[in-house]
Amino acid sequence: MSRYFDIDDIIMEDKHSTVFFKVGANGVGLLDPSAETNRVEQGSRVELPFWLANELYLRQAVSVNIPPCFNLKTRREIQADAACVDLRSRCPYFYELGCKVAPLIGDKTIGSFLLYAFMNRFKDILSKAHSAAFAVAPRFLPLLTKEEMQLYEAACSSMTGFKKWRVGGSRFEKASILGMKKRSSE
Amino acid sequence: MAGQSDPSLSMFSAAEVEFLAEDEMVEIVPNLNMDTLNLICGDFGPFRPQMATSVPLWLAVALKKRGKCTIRSPQWMSVENLTQVLEAERDSPAQFQPLPFHYVEISRLLFDNARDDIPDMYMARSLIEDIRDVRFHKFETGLEKISSSTHVVKLKNLSAMEVNIVRPFFVRALQAFAKHDSPQMIHHQQDAMSSRQTHVQDDGPRRDLRRR
């Protein structure tokens, strides 16, 4: 519940995933574009945003499929070379979504798969985040998910803060408002 | 993950670390006559010309700026000592050499304010920069060894400024590892064959903190 107001969480849950309806549902034909009447038949395949799929799953009205970003193709790519996989284009909230989806689907391997992916990417990319030269950095940046991006930015900002301090300069900064000359009112 | 969305994860700014460093004591040689200063943090003085006294760094810098003293360079900042430390740093790839906790800040303050008091200033300055680079590089290579079974990381002899730089990144990284390696994510795999390895890691979170 502490994440209820978290913007990242809200955006993440907006991702679509396919679900199979276990029961028929009246009055919500809007969800299924191929429905003729205003209802969703049992066993039909619908694309729903994750927050809706989650709630319906808790009410045991649907069974959820794996979101497309965790399919076999992605797994193979990550096993080949984790650091080069462009996770952001698949799903910018790769890890978060995986953590949420894992209990919903029957797939038990997501947890260790996420861990494996994160560890490898961490080793290759993030451990160099601190001292990454400006030329090197942009190559990796578009590949990172939101969480990795936060890690990276934390490292960068603390490093730049240190460098700025090292260069020196006055300890006191004059507030900018004091430097403004009075303008005569027009 | 309370701090994940907050980019400034309770971090000291570099200037604040420098402020804390100014409490370290240094030796000065005053050239004025002054009675004891009774301050809340302690009594300093009396100041007599050419008699060395020990004062906090902030006081030393203040006096120096007014031309009332000369600062004696600390023992560890001599060129011989720094060269030794640099050699030792380069020779031991896994350990950090013992250095004063605030060596980065103290050296910067002294270089900026007490240039003429330090023998071989340029040499000492470049040595300190080299030492800092080597230590930081050691830290980065150590980072790559963090795996999911790390619960406590012990880094001996890391200085205040270095700790401050890596703090946000390090904390977040460990949080992320803990999140992905938590028992809920992996526990249901204990029966699977491939989880023979993960089973070892699974015991970790339930034990008390122990060294890596």
UniProtKB/TrEMBL annotation, chain A:
Subcellular location: Nucleus
InterPro entries: GINS_A, GINS_bundle-like_dom_sf, GINS_Psf3, GINS_Psf3_sf, PSF3_N
Keyword terms: DNA replication, Nucleus
The DNA replication complex GINS protein PSF3 N-terminal domain, residue ranges: 5-57
Pfam families in alphabetical order: PSF3_N, Sld5
Residue ranges constituting the GINS subunit domain according to the UniProt record: 70-165
Gene3D superfamilies documented for this protein: 1.20.58.2050
SUPFAM superfamilies the record matches: GINS helical bundle-like, PriA/YqbF domain
Domain of life: Eukaryota
GO cellular component, one term: GINS complex
One BP annotation, GO: mitotic DNA replication initiation
Family from the record: Belongs to the GINS3/PSF3 family.
Name the UniProt record assigns to this protein: DNA replication complex GINS protein PSF3
TrEMBL record, chain B:
Basic and acidic residues biased stretches: 199-212
Keywords: DNA replication, Nucleus
Keyword Nucleus: yes
GINS subunit domain residues: 76-175
Pfam families for this protein: PSF2_N, Sld5
Major localization class: nucleus
Subcellular location: Nucleus
Source taxon at top rank: Eukaryota
Location of region: Disordered: 182-212
Subunit structure: Component of the GINS complex.
Family affiliation: Belongs to the GINS2/PSF2 family.
Protein name: DNA replication complex GINS protein PSF2
The organism of origin for this protein: Stephania yunnanensis
